[in-house]
Model the fold of this input.
Amino acid sequence: MMKEKTYRRLFLGRGLLLVCCVVIASGLMAAQSKLAVCVPEANVHVSPGFDSPVISALSSGDILSLFESGQIFGEWLCVSFYSQMRNAHAMGFIHTSQVRVVFDNEASDDHVSERDNEGTSLQSSPELRKEVDPGQRSESEAEIMRKNSLKIGAIYFMPSEESFKNIYGSGLGFGGELNVGIWKSVLGWVIGNYYTADGSLPVTKEATQLSLLMLGGGPKIMFSKTKFRPYLGVGPVIYVYKEENPIGLAEGTGIGFIGQLGFSIQVVGGLVLDASMNYTYCEVQPQDIKANVGGVQLGLSIGYSF
Done:
């Protein structure tokens, strides 16, 4: 009886070991197709989509293994790779436009040199060509590269100068902004806002009117390549002012600076919603008194990115 139980245990143990070996071998076979990153920088995400959390950032030439089972999720590939940050292998999703198929002799290491003529693009690969929609991929690549935008919206202007506040208070204005991609996450931006207000002079209480035209711009940095994009911009600003009341007419220009902090959200296609806070400082001297016509501008706008 003891020998029979021992044989059964040995048989079950070897059977389980054999099953484990088959499962492991199947897993290794499932990840045998090799890919290489073909862009300077590429992110591997937790799930398909550019707005998904990033697992790891890869560089051009880094090698990944493609899972054959359920490998394509629209324009996304399920891959495994070696994460230097975690010092271990990890799994995630990468966009088809950021990788290419490599031959076995190229994939002997975790990195290959940029020999694009020896590799095969995903679009020309017979196994993957039929499952990737080129139209969809082009649309997603365009979303990544959409740095240019044109926006229009409203502002709420809160002047910094105390005497300005006492006469005109705070109020609404309107404006627009143009952003143009320059290099990687750096943009050039131009902004224009227009603000008018009615007030009363401090002593006589007579009516007075003010109009301010602000033009500014400079470099801007985008801190994300996802649909949610925080940004920071700085640059010079020019104010064109005009104040009219019974005392007389005062008009002129002044030069100062502007700082901008905000974020934009790419809703669908090229449609963009934007929220920003601008701070400007600009001294003008219509007569003998210097005054700061700048302040804080809170803006909400809608626009189109291209």
